[in-house]
Amino acid sequence: MNPVTKPATTTSFNAAVPDIPRKRKGSDSDNQDVSAVEVDGDLQKRSEDEEHVKVKDFREAHSQTEKRRRDKMNNLIEELSAMIPQCNPMARKLDKLTVLRMAVQHLKSLKGSSSSYSEVRYKPSFLKDDELRQLILRAADGFLFVVGCNRGKILFVSESVCKILNYDQASLIGQSLFDYLHPKDVAKVKEQLSSSDVSPREKLVDGKTGLQVHTDFQAGPARLNSGARRSFFCRIKCSRTTVKEEKECLPNPKKKDHRKYCTIHCTGYLKNWPPNEVGVEEENDVEKDSSNFNCLVAIGRLHPYIVPQKSGEIKVKATEFVTRFAMDGKFVYVDQRATAILGYLPQELLGTSCYEYCHQDDHNHLAEKHKEVLQNKEKVFTNSYKFRAKDGTFVTLKSQWFSFMNPWTKELEYIVSNNTVVLGHKESAEEEVLYSSQPVEDAVKQSLVSVPGMSSGTILGAGSIGTEIANEILELQRLHSSPSGELSPSHLLRKSPSPALTINCSDVPNKELVQLCPSETEVLENSEQTQGAIPFPSNEPLLSGNSQLDFDAICENDDTAMTALMNYLEADGGLGDPADLSDIQWAL
Amino acid sequence: MTIFCSHCHRPLQAEMSCLPTRAKQAPSASRPFRSTKSASKARRDQINAELQALRSLLPISAQEKERLSYLHTMALVCLRLRGAQLFPPGLAPPAGPALGTELLSLLPGFLLVLSADSKLVYISENVAQVLGLSVVELLAQGDTVFDILDGRVGEDVHKKLLLAREEPGREVTFVSEMRTSKAFRLQHGGNRVVAVCGRFVALCWPPSPSTTAFLALCTPVVQSPTDGEAASQDDIFQSMHLLDMTFIDVTESVTYHLGYHREELVGQSWYSLLHPEDADLAAAQHRAVGECQAREGACCPPPSMVWLMPETWLPRKQRKSKLSPPCCDSLLQKRRGREVVTHPIHCVYVVSKLGAGIVLCHGIQKRDKPT
């Protein structure tokens, strides 16, 4: 008799095999009885062969399944033996039974060590409570805190607060939470700490139907009193250093901008908890009032709105990045990958014109493409052009541009540019001889103001290329849409040399450039002058295209006019208070 | 006569020893090995007995114990032992309130711990609230992470886990369907899609292979009211727009999620916040809403993910806001009779766990009157 023992041992354990879901590879006949394939004597002969084949197949499949099970079992046994301390010293592989016996011993010993945990509350689980707590805090990247509802006193905070807010655990215990909150959040947190049901100030909307709901939205099966759950966001001061003085500084509302706040998402529940159970020492002067030991037990997690790096992707030096331009070629969005390629931070580029960075030789061709993309709905491909990086060298790029239109107004939101680095063409700054100081366009006023913060060698006045193009296109559009022979942009340019109203383009999504009638311009200018100096934001020549506001031409589209006005007012160096608007006669 | 094993000195059955048995080898101190039916049966019974003992020692309920097959038992035992290895004995527990499982309900999902070779080390019990299956049920198919994932993501998950292992501390995220109970599948229209976000951490010092594990938080991509975390008015933010999607108003909670202050956004175009990847999709939704006849009342395309860029991606120079909320209202009022006043577009955003700025935009719709 062949002592290949295994089949005999495993079949007897089939009894409680659980349902095998469909996805399992191989046969799905695991639960079939052998009897099911008994050939029925009444079947005709010709199907007997089929049946034989079926039976054979079944048996083969069955033995395949059995084999898989055996293999699985053996793997598990092996793994088990690797984990059991007693089995490790054994030089040779142990047999199944012995491994199992040792596993039993081991489990018993594990159970024994944890039974010292509170007998009353003992609930069998795969991990102990404090182990679980550590895992929770690490996984959530959060800290546990307990604050008394009465005065917001921090009764406990876990060590992990150090990693998140940079405070020493001991320095926080006993402090009032309100001392660390953003002033605007104090009232909200007070409300959360109160025992009454929290009523939403802002209307909640039912996610499914989009309709507003006015009831409290309580979620989840009630593990705890549903009224006791709390979930809110708040801003908590982070400590920049762990110096003691920092903590003693009183929060100064005027200086709040200098303090760094972290947005913390707090989820917790209220619990009535006498202090001695909290596990920390209580100070002597705590209220002896035993009626209110309500505390909030919560986990605070950092809720940064900084996107973590795209997880999982192998970091390759980027060769592509995306930018967006306003109609006049000014950057309104710069992908973070650009920093790795060009050296500039996005904020350094925003609001500046791309023409300032492009090599002069490329200006003509880019200007052409610029015009093209504004007039077409199609994608436009540029040839290679050189873009000055922060260190002065040139990076060769190739871009694909297209105009992104607002589906409602059918107007340009921005030009999207997908930029690719063309490798092997990096040129040094030495090859760039003197940049021409001649005005590129006639109407542009040359400004020789040096602009702090801009990398040297930027072509002054180049930005106007973009604005000129934008204006041209606008004029074309206006000529098509409106009969009014209002002042052309260039006319206005020549007319008013005074420091006018430049809009910081990074603020303006630039739906439409609007022009004020001349009389209104003067009104505004006057009021502007009485207000004081206007900040001179960039290296733009004094009157750029953006400074023109014209409402007349766009009567039929007053939505955009209004919004554009709102944009304008939002900008730096904008007008005075909204009240001033009432003085102006709207041509609406 | 009782025979003792020469190795571990425990009493043995006749044909057993704790040394590896090759069927053909004869152990030194016993009768010649013969595989008889009764011998096999005896051995099976012994193994069964040990398995039964193991079952009884598992930290699960009695009913669950009854239904376990041998493979299932083994998987659970391995899980138990791997979990026990995470925190070596003898470490003093950290001070503080005795809280453990109650804290699980405060998380937006469940915990998943994996070993370096993708074996399951721990799954927190609140997994039942997300997938409808208990820990025991999840291990019915096996004890690796791939046994709980459903769908063809094996390749991707492998790569990500490898990456995480090579760079401990680096966070990786993958999204996958997971095995879900039938009831939940009916409720959610399929297996639940879960975003698994974690990294390899050393849980104790000094780090050792058994205490270094992949620790992840698994959150359902689409939240449902039955999920553990209580919703609050802060979890969502809403915005109102003109028909061209310029912001008219936005709730204060936008500050928590995107970093902008309300005043900064009013008057801005929605499109300036959209991530390039999503701009087209969002425009399509906008177009769909625009095409809805006003007569039909609220018109509501299905919710979709939109990626709004947080403030740190779109740094804006510091500026004072000139428009305060009352002014917005008066602007709206001034434009009497225009459709846009009576039908602003209303968006509700539910912040997704997939990353900052990714929001589920519900109900981009026209409303009959400003709210």
Automatic annotation (TrEMBL), chain A:
Tell me a GO biological process for this protein. circadian rhythm
Domain BHLH: residue ranges:
57-110
Among its keywords, does the record have Cytoplasm? no
Q: Name one GO cellular component term.
A: transcription regulator complex
Query: What are this entry's molecular-function GO terms?
Result: DNA binding; DNA-binding transcription factor activity; protein dimerization activity
**Matches recorded under InterPro entries:** bHLH_dom, Circadian_TF, HLH_DNA-bd_sf, Nuc_translocat, PAS, PAS-like_dom_sf, PAS_fold
List localization entries: Nucleus
| Basic and acidic residues composition-biased segments | 42-51
Annotated region (Disordered), positions in chain: 1-51
Statement: the UniProt record of this protein carries the keyword Transferase:
no
The alphabetized UniProt keywords are: Activator, Biological rhythms, DNA-binding, Nucleus, Repeat, Transcription, Transcription regulation
Q: Which Pfam families does the UniProt record give? A: HLH, PAS, PAS_11
The PAS domain is annotated at 128-193, 328-377
Q: What is this protein called?
A: Aryl hydrocarbon receptor nuclear translocator-like protein 2
Q: What organism does this protein naturally occur in? A: Cyanistes caeruleus
Gene it is expressed from: BMAL2
